Amino acid sequence: MRTDKKWELRLYVAGKTERSVTALTNLRKYCEEHLKGQYRIEVIDLLEKPQLAEGDQILAIPTLVRKVPEPIRKIIGDLSNEEKVLVGLNIIPA
Q: How many structural domains comprise the chain?
């Protein structure tokens, strides 16, 4: 499937826990501030689709996976440290 979005992000969660909701809220905020109009977020709830954890080798949740641009990068946690997230995703240089 071809997409005009530059960044493809996948957030793995387990239900609507406080950490999962916080991670998604933080991710949306950072994307709107730094990648406006250039991103797509896919949220995967492992309580509903546990088989999807294996493909991206998810060992903890919440976990954010940057699929595109490559290389794939992962960040674990509620994404509350904005600088760590932006550097980890290579949105801003280290």
A: 1
Residue span of the structural domain in which 71 resides: 7-87
CA distance 56 to 33: 26
Total-model pTM: 0.88
In a domain, 12, yes or no: yes
Q: Assign residue 76 the CATH number of its domain.
A: 3.40.30.10
Torsion sign across C-alpha atoms 17, 45, 55, 66: negative
Question: If you compute the radius of gyration of the chain from its CA atoms, what whole number of angstroms results?
Answer: 13
In the predicted model, what is the mean pLDDT of residues 36-54? 93
Question: CA 50, CA 44: separation in Å to the nearest integer?
Answer: 9
Q: Quickly state the pLDDT bin for 94 (edges 50, 70, 90).
A: low
Domain assignment of residue 94, yes or no: no
Find the Cα–Cα–Cα–Cα dihedral 82, 79, 3, 46, rounded to 10°.
Answer: 180
